């Protein structure tokens, strides 16, 4: 079945451009559009999309609050949110990730990256562009703990290797890169990542990366 996508952006021309790109793919169907967060909530309830391509800055209700309501405990469907941000790394993206977004994508990303991001998020994975993720978290480090705070008790449930994997996830490394760094197989890395998410009660790699910073396990700006 085709991946059902809802486009949410207050600029009609951008929505038209995204629609043209996505509808050229046989496995993707654009089921609706919205110009602000409130419309997005209505459309999610009515259309039950698989993926919501969400702008951040919009009138009436911004993308952060809309994401929080779409992915929160009272959610009414399987929709996952892929946030659109600007080249300058929108200051609200960290909040959107905390709110439950499954990843983010630059608005000027090539068409093939947009299509791939939709597929990745629809499959239940997180869309983490390593270099952008690291720059984003470091740039907005003032919104995150300094690393001097006590380590949360939940972190102690992880094994030493799982902590290593979490640190590398926070740096934005892919499974293949983590496998190479730790000299293990990708399958082993996937298993470790799964254990980390389960033990910490996290939904995906995006939340894991933010958790690593918020818990003080990874300090902003550290290598």
TrEMBL record:
Pfam families with a match to the protein in the record: GerE, Response_reg
- Entries under InterPro entries matching the protein: CheY-like_superfamily (IPR011006), NreC/VraR/RcsB-like_REC (IPR058245), Sig_transdc_resp-reg_C-effctor (IPR016032), Sig_transdc_resp-reg_receiver (IPR001789), Tscrpt_reg_LuxR_C (IPR000792), WalR-like (IPR039420)
Ranges where the Response regulatory domain occurs: 4-122
Q: Which SUPFAM superfamilies match?
A: C-terminal effector domain of the bipartite response regulators, CheY-like
Sorted alphabetically, which PROSITE patterns does this protein's record hold? Answer: HTH_LUXR_1 (PS00622), HTH_LUXR_2 (PS50043), RESPONSE_REGULATORY (PS50110)
Q: Which residues carry this modification: 4-aspartylphosphate?
A: 55
HTH luxR-type domain residues: 151-216
Keywords for this protein = DNA-binding, Phosphoprotein, Transcription, Transcription regulation
Q: According to the lineage, what is the superkingdom?
A: Bacteria
Q: Which PANTHER family match?
A: TRANSCRIPTIONAL REGULATORY PROTEIN NARL-RELATED (PTHR43214:SF24), TWO-COMPONENT RESPONSE REGULATOR (PTHR43214)
- Return the protein name: Response regulator
Species the sequence originates in:
Streptomyces anandii
